[in-house]
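I am writing to request your help with a piece of structural work I have in hand. What I wish to show you is a protein chain and, alongside it, a tokenised description of its three-dimensional fold. Could you please explain, in whatever detail you think fit, how the structure tokens follow from the sequence? You will find the record immediately after this paragraph.
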Amino acid sequence: MRVFTAVVEKCKSTGLYVGYVPGLPGAHSQAETLDELNDNLKEVVEMLLEDGEPPVDSEFVGTQYVKVA
């Protein structure tokens, strides 16, 4: 079993959750709920892995707070 980190945001104009897997080209989706988004992203990643190991462009490191005055 492999675990991928997804970045998730909520679009203000559509109300949809939008997610992507950093560094994995084509691994993105959207959905009305977080559970549906997770299912969609899982399906996309599984399809990408069917053709072998996809090239990973980068690796998710984390998040940072940026303080401005």
